[in-house]
Hints:
The chain is of the alpha+beta class. The protein has four helices and ten strands. The protein folds into two domains: 3-69 and 96-115; 123-242, Cupredoxins -  blue copper proteins (Immunoglobulin-like, Sandwich). It has helices at 3-26, 36-69, 87-115, 230-242, and strands at 123-130, 133-138, 147-148, 151-154, 159-165, 170-174, 179-183, 194-198, 204-210, 222-228. It has a five-stranded mixed beta sheet with strand order 3-2-1-5-8, with no helix packed on it. It has a five-stranded mixed beta sheet with strand order 4-10-9-6-7, with helices on one face. A hairpin with an 8-residue loop joins β2 and β3.
Amino acid sequence: MRWSQIVQLAVIAAIVGAATTAAAVLIPWLPPSASEQRDRIDFTFWLVTGISIFIFAVVVSVILFSVLKFRARPDDDTDGPPIHGNTGLEIAWTAVPALLVTVIAVAAGVVLTQNGNAGSNPLRVNVTAVQFAWSFEYANSSAKGVQATTLRLPLGRPVQLELHSKDVIHSFWVTEFGQKMDALPDTPEFPHPTHLVITPSKLGTFPIICTELCGLGHSLMRSQVIVMKPAQFDAWAKARKQA
């Protein structure tokens, strides 16, 4: 391939890549982030998106270049020149995807490990799901023993949720936190608690949604999580205990 053709390919790839990147970045595909775990998940998402845009730009540029340079005339019925393969090219298109998949796997593994680490002293909350409501009981810290139907969390502190279900499978999800975890039915003989780690990074009120079809009232199984400043959280916990 001549250098002029390589330059043409590069220009087409740059144009396609720029247009695709603009569509990916300028359109708000993702909801706002409100946790450190969600930020890590978003990093993985954009890493995969960037790799996908690169591959898409290369493939589309080769297709467009081939259409422009090697198209046959309407009256040309001859066969093209025989091609016997290119060892270097075959090695490249095997090694490069293998490298990209390895990068994605390593990044995803690191994010999963970090997102599952609650640290040495997280706020522990027992989450109970029942058709069709959520309830929360704080297991340690200044809120130990407090029960509520609205989840309140202090800003910036790791929280470990232990999820239980009293009937069927439910699923705890806060969009802004970026993670979803099933709550499995418990029995005295076979408890099935699941765990989810969250570190809130933004003040505000966010909806809690059940994302597992759990019966006729599934669409109504909603609650809220309120992220507060640590001092406000301690004051709320103290007031609930006194009440």
